[in-house]
Amino acid sequence: MSRAAFYVLFTASGFAGLIYESIWTHYLKLFLGHAAYAQSLVLVVFMGGMAGGAALCGRLSSRLPQPLLGYALVEAAIGLLALVFHWVFVAATDWAYASMLPAVGGGAALAAKLTLSCVLILPQSVLLGATFPLMSAGLARAFPASAGESVAMLYFTNSLGAAAGVLASGFWLIAWIGLPGTLDIAGVLNLLLALTVWLLSRSLYCAPLERTATEEEGAKLLLAVAFFTGLASFIYEIVWIRMLSLVLGASTHSFELMLAAFILGLALGGLAIRRSVDRAASPERLLGWVQVAMALAAAATLPVYDFTFGLMEALMTGLARNDTGYALFNLSGAGIALLVMLPATFCAGMTLPLITGAALRRGAGESAIGRVYAANTLGSIVGVVLAVHIGLPQLGLKLTLLAGCLVDAALGIALLALFGSNRAWKAAAAAGGFALLAIGVGVQLDPHKMTAGVFRHGELAASRDAKILFAKDGKTATVHLVQYSEATSLRTNGKSDGSIVMDRDAPRGSDEVTMVLTAGIPLALNPDTRRAAVIGIGTGLTTHTLLQSLSIEHVDTVEIEAAMAEASRGFMPRNSGTYADPRGTLVIDDAKSYFSASGARYDLIISEPSNPWVSGVASLFTREFYRRIRGHLEPGGMLVQWFQLYEIDASLVASVMTALAEEFPHYAIFAPSDHDILIVAGDRPLPLPAQARVFEQPGLAKELWTVHVLTAGDLDARYIGSRELLAPLFASYGVPANSDYEPLLDLNAARHRFTERSATDLVALLNLDVPVLEMLDPSRSRRAINPLFQGAYAFDRIENARLAWYARDFLIGARQPAPERVPTALQKDLDLLRVRLLECRDPRNYDVWLHSAVRVAALVNPHLSPDDAGAIWARVQAGACYPSLNGLQREWIGLLRAVAARDAARMAPIAEDILAREPGLAIEAREYLLMAAMTARLASREPDAALRLWQEHGARVRTSSPVFRLLRCRARSEGCAADFTAYAVE
């Protein structure tokens, strides 16, 4: 029998095994509500089950005539359970939300969820834990002279396969076939492994390695070492993942890279020690030196970690922001993770083979394989629990890591004292103690680097002068409150989750505008809202704004990380209502769990999570999430969903909108800024437009005035459109709905962040050259924007209205000095029009004025009322210059006046005539004409004519523009996506 064949097979077993850990994490973060909770629970249950399986094998393996056949049966059982896991999970969690959580109530909800999660993955984990002892026992029996080498090689091959499984599932399989399909692949692989091992070993029989040892103390010592080194190793893992999240980003792919790096280090350690296990004069003494080396290597990660920030800054500066650059970013991230983890994990990978080999050489019998493995995995469980629930919240990153180092160093010194020379253990103690003390005292984690978000912007300098107001390592994230010169920012794992300008006289930031309007817009739609909930506290400003409404009776703010709620207190008094108003309740829990356990129903639910590239957050933008949330809304209640348009592709926005539309028959989209949208959804037609009553409540009006929203017209200016208007646009991307089990958003959001994609063209629909939205949706409100024009914080729509009024007054009013912030190009266009068309200075001899006229029309026509904009072109046509213009010039002026008047009957024939007669038009002019003509035909209910225009002229415009997607798909929705497939998610 060749051992190599079994090594290859066990590599495949490790590949499948870590696919399960990875996929179970994805599944359970859907149920538990946060990736960090899911990862720690999966680690605990996964390792606990494996410990149980290993311990069981330790007791039974010597009684099995053929351990390899037992291994084959176990692999077959794992495969069969994998094939039904998805259906069991869906049924179990649906039952939990519908029955279990409401029955147990809020206090016991978390315990109930954890128990059910354990039940879901524990049986497979126990079986997985049995694979290593069974395979090891089978090869140890067949090759008793090199049993230690067999164990080490199996540890290496299994770990190597595990690292590959993590990467394959995260970067390829889930994107290809989703979570259920990935589980099916792993399950089929297990079944094939079972069949192959059965065929290879069915006739093989070797006598078991009998236990001959009489020294129980030696066996107990080795089991204790296995336990405590496992404890220390997983303390390292938890701390390193949290530390590296601030360097690599807290995305799902970053976690997978870190986990793969950790496992690869273990694999290489097992490979390196394979021959020494059987040849070493004293494996216990060698183990002692390895433990001391591991402690020092783990402590050395602190100064190395500080260096990684500068390394990431250099990488972000040098990498191109494209898909190739993103691939290099991930490769570099893996390299950084290895730089931090590899020395210590290399040592950790040596420990289990050495302990097992030492036990076998002492005559402990093959049961020692399972017992050592069980003790090691039990220690890992304790390490995870201590790190997540005690170490990080109470000690912080640095001290938690050093606590693990002390455990390893103490183990090494004890082993050297027992099995080495007196000189050796004293030297190790002195060297280890000095090194740990020097690193502990001399190396400090720099909070300025940790809050910089270097993985995002590639810059550390901006954070060096910032003032750290709050810092805490919470159970799920590291949270800082940082005061910069321009604003105070709440940062989670180095990423900004909201900022507020604390100087009341300074201009407001776009975050502040968004947070106020996230509450203000739904209250303006339904001023009688009584009960509300906010998912994610952020800065606390959204909850504070809600509580300024006198009609609000109660607001639940649900936040999963207690450190976030603690940090946001630093924004007081700007958000004081969140903490001081008795109508508000702060709940530390997962929102889905809290809603189910409490049975709460609301008039308004606001979902304001972090950015969807953060691991676990994308599950708050899926069809399954919207289905559950809809069940917690009162009839006629509204969901408000914040969503970013920066660092994301329009196709991903379409995926989220498709998911939401599957569960909510009605929605409308507002733009609080040029970079964000607010989706208001409900089961009944929405009460549009926003009501001016919102400004009658002093506290609420004050918050809106603070961000320069002064009138109902300012709210109208932010209304993009309803489902009826925009659904064809989202359908044009041809992407599926974002789902828990086909997580399109989670898989692509981090890549889009790196490549700096943008979907802000959606808000740009408010600033089109032609009033497209108004003409396609004539029922939309046309109330005037505030006359002070002070609402331009990160919002071009209001700034354009200000400039449009200036242009009108300049052309047909008394000449006035230009106010501040008038673009030079606009002023030149206005001067040229005044000279050529109003003062009649050679208008026919120079055609450059026509380009200026179109650009001015693109500003004034959509942003002024028909009467105000039309007055400009009426003045031109009534002037002395107009009769001297040629036919084409007069036709253009006629078109501009028709657009100003929203006169579809006149717009279409003029625009179509110019398009047909002037084939050499510049692309900007062609796009203007096609936009005007198609809009007019659609407004006149002539979709076939609009489609014909697209077919004739669409090839010569920028088809990726959202406006042409919208016009084309409203002309004929069937087959629309096929015209734009090149722009879909890659």
Characterize the structure shown.
The protein has an eight-stranded mixed beta sheet. Strand 1 (467-473) and strand 2 (478-483) form a beta hairpin. It is elongated, with a radius of gyration of 33 Å. With 986 residues, it is of the alpha/beta class. Helix content is 64%, strand content 8%. The chain folds into five domains: 1-207, MFS general substrate transporter like domains (Growth Hormone, Chain: A), CATH 1.20.1250; 216-445, Growth Hormone, Chain: A, CATH 1.20.1250; 448-500; 510-761, 3-Layer(aba) Sandwich (Rossmann fold), CATH 3.40.50.150; 772-983, no CATH class. The protein is built from 36 helices and twelve strands.
Which SSEs are present, and which pair or pack?
Layout: H1 3-32, H2 35-60, H3 67-104, H4 106-142, H5 147-201, H6 216-248, H7 252-273, H8 276-279, H9 283-318, H10 323-361, H11 367-419, H12 422-442, H13 447-450, H14 454-457, E1 467-473, E2 478-483, E3 488-492, E4 495-500, H15 510-525, E5 531-535, H16 541-546, E6 554-559, H17 562-567, H18 576-580, E7 584-588, H19 591-598, E8 602-607, H20 623-630, E9 633-644, H21 650-663, E10 666-673, E11 676-682, H22 698-706, H23 712-716, E12 719-722, H24 723-731, H25 744-754, H26 761-764, H27 772-776, H28 796-812, H29 824-838, H30 848-863, H31 866-878, H32 887-900, H33 904-917, H34 923-939, H35 943-953, H36 962-971
Parallel strand pairs: 5-6, 5-8, 6-7, 8-9
Antiparallel strand pairs: 1-2, 2-3, 3-4, 9-11, 10-11, 10-12
